[in-house]
Specification:
- The protein has 465 residues and is an alpha/beta fold.
- The chain is 45% helix and 13% strand.
- The protein contains 18 helices and 17 strands.
- A 7-stranded mixed beta sheet has the order 4-10-9-8-7-5-6, with helices on both faces. Strands 13-14-17-16 form a 4-stranded antiparallel beta sheet.
- It is globular, with a radius of gyration of 23 Å.
- The protein binds D-serine (DSN).
- D-serine is lined by residues 37, 104, 132, 187.
- It catalyses: (6R)-5,10-methylene-5,6,7,8-tetrahydrofolate + glycine + H2O = (6S)-5,6,7,8-tetrahydrofolate + L-serine.
- Interconversion of serine and glycine.
Length: 465
C-alpha cells in the first residue's frame, strides 16, 4: 500500500466514500432528528474517536493487561472510570465501574453472563410495552433476543388502560417465577421508574436489581430525574443517548456490604470479578480505547452546569411537545412525559405507526414507529416515538418545539389524506404517494420548509468534520 493511501486525506484517497459521508452530514443538518435514542455528540468526543488510541490492543484491566505498551491506555481507562463514578456522584468504596462494553446490548449480556447462571431467570419490561430487546424479548413463536435464548425470561407489562408499569402484577409474577435478576429499564416509556418498588420486589425474591438507564443516563447525571443508584445493585448504560457521549456502554456494580444476617454476619457483594470477567474474557476482546477516552471526556462534560441546563431543556421540550400534540388532538401514552420522549398513539388520528413514520421521514423529520400499550404485535405498531435530546443539542427551545409540532401535524394530515386513498398498508401508502402528483407536491413543499428551518440551527462538528 502506498504512503499516499496511508497518509493522504480521506477526501483525496477515497472520494466515493467521502461523498457518502458528506451526504449523511447534510441529511443530519437538514433534518429534524427526533429518534429518542439519538443525539449529536460533542466535538471533543468526535476528536477522541479519531485518535491513535484506536490502534491499541489492551485486553485485561488497567495494570493487568495481556499486551505491553499500555501505560497511557491504563491512565485513560482509569480516568474514564473515575469520571464515570463522579458523574453519578458515586463513592468508589461502594461502587465499581467497567467502561469496556462496546455498547448497551453487550453490557446487558455481560451482566447476565456474570451473575445469572445459564438458563437462570430474568424479568424485564416486555418489548411491546416499552422494554428493550436485551431485557429478554421473545414472542409466542420465537426466541428473538439471545437474552431469551440463553436465559429464561419472564416479561412484566404495563397496564393497557393507563400505560403505566403494573408493579402489583410484577410483584405477583416475581413471587411465582423467582427471578435471579429483575431489570428496571426502558427504551420507550415516558415516566420515571419507581426504583424503590422494584427494590422491594427484588428483595422479596432474593433477586438482584439492575437498572438499564441507557435512555435516561444524561437526565440522571444531571440530577433532573430520580437516580437508580440508591436502590440498584447494578446499573448499565449506553453513553450516546441523553448522555451525549460516544457509542459505547458502561456497567456500574455495587461493592462492599450487600446485607447483614440476623446474627450480624455481613454478606459482601461479589459482583466486581464476575462482571469484569464476563466482559473480558467472557464476551469481548480488546476494549475500544478511542471510545473509552471519549467516555472520559463525556463524563467530564456531564458534571458541568451547562449540561444540567441542557438536560432540563430536554425535558421542557418533551413536555411542550406533548402539550402541543395533545392540543391538536393526538393521544399521548400515559398522558404526557417526565423524561426526554413521548409516545404518540396514532390511532387518535386514524393512522398507525408505519405510515406516520414514513410521511415524517419524507418530510425530513426522523422518528420511529413504536408499539403503544395494548398493541398485540411489535411488527404492526400503532404509535410513534418522538424524542427531544438531539433537537435540544441543536439549541431548540419551547417556542421552537411549537414550530416542530406544527410541522409534525401538517405531515400527519397529509398521511391522513393519503390513507383515505391507499388504506392502511404501508406498501399501498407508498404507492399512493408515488402515483399522486398532489401528494408528492405537498410533501416536497413541507420538506423544504422543515429543511430550511432545521438548517437555521447549528450542528456540533458541522464545520469541522
Ligand atoms: N435502539 C435503541 C433505542 O432506540 O431505544 C436502544 O438500543
Amino acid at each position: 500500500m502506498s504512503s499516499q493511501l496511508l497518509n493522504g486525506n480521506l477526501w483525496d484517497t477515497d472520494p466515493e466514500l467521502y461523498d457518502l459521508i458528506k451526504k449523511e452530514k447534510s441529511r443530519q443538518h437538514a433534518g429534524l432528528e427526533m429518534i429518542a435514542s439519538e443525539n449529536f455528540t460533542s466535538i471533543p468526543v468526535l476528536q477522541c474517536l479519531s485518535t491513535c488510541l484506536h490502534n491499541k490492543y489492551s485486553e485485561g484491566m488497567p495494570h493487568q493487561r495481556y499486551y505491553g505498551g499500555n501505560e497511557y491506555i491504563d491512565e485513560i481507562e482509569l480516568l474514564a472510570q473515575k469520571r464515570s463514578l463522579e458523574a453519578y456522584r458515586l463513592n468508589a468504596d461502594e461502587w465499581g465501574v467497567n467502561v469496556q462494553p462496546y455498547s448497551g446490548s453487550p453490557a446487558n449480556f455481560a451482566v447476565y453472563t456474570g451473575i445469572v447462571e445459564p438458563h437462570g431467570r430474568i424479568m424485564g419490561l416486555d418489548l411491546p410495552d416499552g422494554g428493550h430487546l436485551t431485557h429478554g424479548f421473545f414472542t409466542a413463536t420465537k426466541k428473538i433476543s439471545a437474552t431469551s435464548m440463553f436465559f429464561e425470561s419472564m416479561p412484566y407489562k404495563v397496564d393497557p388502560k393507563t400505560g403505566l408499569i403494573d408493579y402489583d402484577k410484577l410483584a405477583e409474577t416475581a413471587r411465582l417465577f423467582k427471578p435471579r435478576l429483575i431489570i428496571a429499564g426502558i427504551s420507550c416509556y415516558s415516566r420515571c421508574l419507581d426504583y424503590k418498588r422494584f427494590r422491594q420486589i427484588a428483595d422479596e425474591n432474593g433477586a438482584y436489581l439492575m437498572a438499564d438507564m441507557a435512555h435516561i443516563s444524561g437526565l440522571v447525571a444531571a440530577g433532573v430525574i430520580p437516580s437508580p443508584f440508591e436502590y440498584c445493585d447494578i446499573v448499565t448504560t449506553t453513553t450516546h443517548k441523553t448522555l451525549r457521549g460516544p457509542r459505547a456502554g458502561v456497567i456500574f456494580f455495587r461493592k462492599g456490604v450487600r446485607s447483614v444476617k440476623a446474627n450480624g454476619t455481613k454478606v459482601m457483594y461479589d459482583l466486581e470479578n464476575k462482571i469484569n470477567q464476563a466482559v473480558f474474557p467472557g464476551l469481548q476482546g480488546g476494549p475500544h480505547n478511542h471510545a473509552i477516552a471519549a467516555i472520559a471526556t463525556a463524563m467530564k462534560q456531564a458534571t458541568s452546569a451547562e449540561f444540567v441546563e441542557y438536560q432540563k431543556q430536554v425535558i421542557k421540550n418533551a413536555q411542550r411537545l406533548c402539550e402541543g400534540l395533545k392540543s391538536r388532538g393526538y393521544a399521548i401514552a400515559t398522558g404526557g412525559t417526565d423524561v426526554h420522549l413521548a409516545l404518540v398513539d396514532m390511532r387518535s388520528a386514524g393512522l398507525t405507526g408505519a405510515p406516520a413514520e414514513r410521511v415524517l421521514e419524507l418530510c425530513s423529520i426522523a422518528c420511529n414507529k413504536n408499539t403503544v400499550p395494548g398493541d398485540k404485535s411489535a411488527l404492526h405498531p400503532s404509535g410513534i416515538r418522538l424524542g427531544t435530546p438531539a433537537l435540544t443539542t441543536r439549541g431548540l427551545k419551547e417556542t421552537d418545539i411549537d414550530r416542530v409540532v406544527d410541522f409534525i401535524d401538517k405531515a400527519l394530515k397529509i398521511a391522513q389524506e393519503v390513507t383515505k386513498v391507499s388504506g392502511p398498508k404501508l406498501a399501498d401508502f407508498n404507492k399512493a404517494i408515488e402515483e399522486n402528483a398532489e401528494f408528492k407536491s405537498k410533501i416536497e413543499n413541507l420538506k423544504e420548509q422543515v429543511e430550511n428551518y432545521s438548517r437555521s440551527f447549528p450542528l456540533p462538528g458541522f464545520e469541522k468534520y
